[in-house]
């Protein structure tokens, strides 16, 4: 079954870098160990062969007298004395006719282990042969076989020392590498933490701190510059969004919340039982606004609407909320109203606030008379029913005012 790569755990950069460093050091040390081991073994082989040849030359001079007199016991004693010192494993003295004059073999020859035998066969594939001379004539030859245990011990010791040195060098290399990589890891962690915070929490005020490594320091400074630009764009975007939100939910002439905001507020209030219990709605419509426009023009009408909106805003204060629904239609959402009597008292106060004359730009004064309808939120079930009752009461009030004032 193929796994989704996004669901698979990802190693951290620190862990990956540590693995790469460890693998690199191990591979490098293994290659170095192999090269040094091979070169050491080749050097050892050459040195051992040369040493055994020199030894055979020295013994050949010692055996010269014994060969002249064909004294086998004397030759054996010489070989035994030198072999007992661990100079060689076995020796054989042969005359010109191929007859063995003396043959000595030490205990090491019998105690040869498998590894020693393999090392001996590799270093000395054949015994070292040295001719014995007397007055320029060849009397015979001596055949020497090297000591296996000495060679094996030297090989193992060399490899052990070499391996220990390389392990120590590997540990030191890893320590130095980790120390050098620590600065890189800390720098990348610093940058990634800032980037993650900006992406997750939209915290554009975060900045990357200064780093000791020049390349990461320059990268951090460039990243900070980008964050500065992003923060500026974010601030401008927020301001623009706030401005668009105000434009979308507020009346440009009076500054009051518009019909869209009114609808949202009514729906929210009606869906909240705790607010609905003591809430009420007032609908207001101008009685003589058309006459003001026709008499003094639209500029005067705008002046009247602005002043009326300001008086509604002052009346509402921090407790209530006023809206302009369009033209000379306004609304107020009241809170803290528990009965019809309280609601009628609020309407009386509102009429008093609207009663003072409005000074126009041309020096004239006028009064904006308004018909007001009301509805208690707890007496209705839906926002539409609440607005319908308030609207009906407003037109009832408008009819009464027409009859009263002609």
Instruction: Tell me roughly what share of residues is in helical segments.
Output: 55-70%
Indicate the overall shape.
Answer: rod-shaped
Give the spatial strand order of the biggest sheet: 2-1-4-3
How many helices does DSSP assign? 13
Which radius of gyration do the C-alpha atoms yield? 55 Å
* Low-pLDDT stretches: none
Count of β-strands: 10
Determine the N-to-C terminus distance: 88 Å
Structural class: alpha+beta
Could you characterize the architecture of this molecule?
- The chain is α+β, with helices and mostly antiparallel strands and 406 residues long.
- 62% of the residues lie in helices and 15% in strands.
- It has 13 helices and ten strands.
- The radius of gyration is 55 Å and the shape is rod-shaped.
- The mean pLDDT is 84.
Any chance you could write out the topology, listing elements then pairs?
Layout: H1 13-62, H2 64-68, H3 72-84, E1 90-95, E2 100-105, H4 107-110, H5 114-123, E3 128-134, E4 137-145, H6 148-201, H7 214-249, H8 259-270, H9 273-276, E5 279-286, H10 289-296, H11 298-316, E6 321-326, E7 329-335, H12 340-354, E8 358-359, E9 365-366, E10 370-376, H13 383-405
Antiparallel strand pairs: 1-2, 1-4, 3-4, 5-7, 5-10, 6-7, 8-9
Helix pairs in contact: 1-6, 5-6, 6-7, 10-11, 11-12
């Amino acid at each position: 079954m193929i796994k989704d790569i996004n669901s698979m755990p990802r190693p951290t950069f620190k862990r990956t870098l540590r693995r790469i460093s460890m693998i690199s050091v191990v591979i490098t040390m293994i290659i170095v160990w192999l090269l040094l081991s091979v070169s050491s073994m080749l050097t050892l082989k050459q040195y051992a062969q040369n040493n055994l040849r020199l030894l055979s030359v020295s013994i050949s001079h010692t055996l010269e007298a014994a060969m002249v007199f064909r004294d086998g016991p004397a030759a054996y004693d010489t070989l035994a004395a030198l072999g007992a010192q661990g100079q060689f494993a076995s020796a054989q003295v042969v005359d010109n006719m191929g007859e063995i004059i003396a043959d000595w073999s030490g205990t090491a020859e019998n105690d040869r282990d498998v590894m020693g035998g393999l090392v001996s066969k590799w270093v000395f594939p054949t015994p070292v042969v040295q001719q014995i001379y007397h007055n320029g004539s060849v009397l015979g030859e001596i055949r020497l076989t090297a000591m296996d245990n000495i060679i094996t011990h030297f090989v193992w010791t060399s490899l052990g020392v070499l391996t220990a040195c390389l392990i120590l060098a590997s540990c030191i290399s890893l320590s130095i590498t980790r120390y050098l990589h620590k600065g890189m890891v800390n720098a990348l962690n610093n940058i990634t933490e800032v980037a993650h915070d900006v992406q997750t929490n939209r915290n554009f005020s975060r900045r990357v701190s200064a780093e000791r490594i020049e390349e990461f320091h320059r990268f951090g400074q460039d990243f900070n510059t980008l964050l500065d630009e992003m923060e500026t764009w974010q601030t401008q975007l927020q301001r623009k969004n706030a401005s668009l939100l105000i434009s979308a939910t507020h009346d440009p002439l009076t500054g009051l919340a518009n019909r869209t905001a009114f609808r949202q507020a009514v729906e929210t209030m009606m869906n909240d039982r705790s607010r609905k219990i003591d809430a009420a709605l007032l609908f207001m419509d101008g009685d003589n606004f058309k006459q003001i426009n026709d008499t003094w023009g639209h500029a005067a009408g705008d002046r009247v609407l602005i002043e009326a909106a300001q008086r509604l805003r002052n009346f509402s204060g921090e407790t209530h909320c006023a809206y302009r629904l369009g033209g000379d239609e306004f609304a107020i959402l009241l809170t803290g109203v528990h009965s019809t009597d309280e609601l009628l008292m609020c309407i009386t106060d509102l009429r008093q606030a609207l009663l003072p004359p409005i000074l126009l730009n041309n020096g004239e004064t006028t009064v904006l008379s308004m018909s007001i309808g009301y509805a208690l939120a707890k007496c209705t079930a839906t926002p539409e029913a609440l607005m319908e009752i308030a609207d009906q009461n407003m037109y009832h009030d408008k009819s009464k005012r027409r009859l009263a004032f002609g």
